[in-house]
Predict the structure.
Amino acid sequence: MAGVAGARRLWFGLAGLAAFGLLGTAAALSRPDAGVLDALPSLIGAAAGTAALTVLLSKGRDTAPGRRGFLLASAGAVGVAGLGGGLGRLLVSRRDVEAARRGVKLPQPASPARPIPAGADLRVAGLSRFTTSNRDFYRVDTALVLPQVDPDDWMLRVHGMVDRPMELSFEDLLRRPMLERDITLTCVSNEVGGPYVGNARWLGASVRDLLREAGIQSGADQVLSRSADGWTAGSPVETLMDGRDALLAVAMNGEALPVAHGFPARLVVPGLYGYLSATKWVVDLKVTRFADAEGYWVKRGWADHAPIKTLSRIDVPKPLQQLRVGRNVIAGMAWAQTRGISAVEVRIDEGPWRTAELAPVPGTDTWRQWALEWMATAGSHTVEVRATDATGAVQPHKRVPPIPNGATGWHSVVVTVG
């Protein structure tokens, strides 16, 4: 009908195609589980039809230049239509994987997490919560399109310098003893005071037990993990085997991993930056040597060993915030995974350091809230913070950039009181 109408007036046909595209978009977005990407096939189909109709009805198509233009535009329209079909298949795959994710029955933990102590959240307005929701948890990865891995097809291969190579299906993984742990993850690209850190309750199988079963051979010093889309990370063998709760995780905050966070399985390793450990959509663990293989970011100049540094951050007040004279609260977060935070200190305008109140935490692998009351006087003020970990090491003053092994330095904010 759009073609018939367009034969008389091109804009009639284009209007008809636009209407069909909008109707398709409305229908796609009307589904309860729809997202913005669900509208793309309808929009791309309308665009392809528009291109084809415009070329077919253009004047001069019987001339040689017209024929060339017709062929090129037709090929383009076919390409756009093919792209729309491909995107449609991708979206169908996404819905199938999401349905499979919702159908996962999580096993009970053989080793439950410690209860989160009362008071772990100091409930200061503007302060990050102790547990970061799945929706708010930071994402830093190289995947432009999220891998859609069906758990029925998922397989983990453990191989390389091992005595007993292994393959595990998702059902095999779920049958293994599950550990439940609260663990804070941090990205190496996080600047001092940055947002790329979050804490969640994870459920997963012990990586250490899995590697013991495979039998690590003498001389191996790295486990190179690979994701379904080919991304790689190299974790030190000694770190994975030193007693920390390195997990092959299947759940996050009580539900199967969101696709954006690695469903059906990912690695979670306390005390290592994510580029060395936190492989999402993990499908391969190769026991090898650092001398023989490099992970994705190590090839690009980042360090092959990078334990997480002791850091603290001011969440309240915000930079350049206007405060009232009198009582105010300064509050934030501090972390030193596997070591824990023993003290946080705050100073105003390079005055004496004052010890902040620390919230209780369930263990050394999580961040820790802190807060300090401040009787503010009028004027502009600089607030600084530093943390001390449980080994007695104080957060260094000097600012260094994230590359090659993580940023450090004191976080500071400038505020105005009046």
